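Onboarding guide, step 5: your first structure request.
Type a short instruction followed by the sequence, for example:

Predict the 3D structure of this protein.
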Amino acid sequence: MTVLPQTVFAQRASFYTTSAVHKDKAVLDRLVQLAQVQPTDRVLDVATGTGHTAFAFAPHVREVIATDITPEMLAEGEKLRLAAHHSAGVDMGKDEGRIANVEFRLADAHDLPFEDESFDIVTCRRAAHHFVDIRQALREMHRVLRPGGRLVIDDRSVPADDFVDATLNRLDGLHDRSHVREYRSSEWRSMLQDAGFTVEAIELYTKHRPLSAFTNGVEAESVAEIEHIIASLNDAQRIALNVTEKDGEIYLDHWYVMVVGVKD
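The system replies with structure tokens like these:
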């Protein structure tokens, strides 16, 4: 049964502060490139978590409004923002001192509390697979963008393979009860077009990650089911998921997508 994201993320907020996946500089840098940022831009980061995407954009733009539905996530993000001014140990990149232009606000992606056409760029990273109504969220992102504004999304994805699609969504549902769906690139294209965007780019990438990415911090019953799913795979299924063993640990592929939409 799917549960509300804030229920899950209130418990995991501190994890996202230090998560290497969410701090991935190469991915964050690519998002900034795809957004084609300008110094005068006003950016909205939807479902910011603890603010890593907002911090990546901040040195390049006038202002970033970072929203999330979970107060505990925003509190962790504010801690990071303040720590960046006082400690070189916080990895914000070379422009650590230039994140004073980030403002955190509580907001639901499905009902953004902003005026029409009030942002130049909207970003959303590693969050859309939690949205209970992704099409409504995309309509809201479209509404708050100015004409010609850009939406840049980075999220978990699945390939056009029914078995891999079903299996990864099942694994993520066991890992996180607020999970709704990881979408195929074809679904992303259709959803953005339906929301009124012109799709400018779709970039796919994969990462070979340990099974512990699904099991860390998860209750024992769900861990047992995750391990059973992997143990029950036949040879063809293992190949489809690129299941291997390295240093005594099981690894498998995770699929991701970056999508750029432009508001006409």
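Each response can be followed by summary notes, for example: The longest helix spans residues 5-18.
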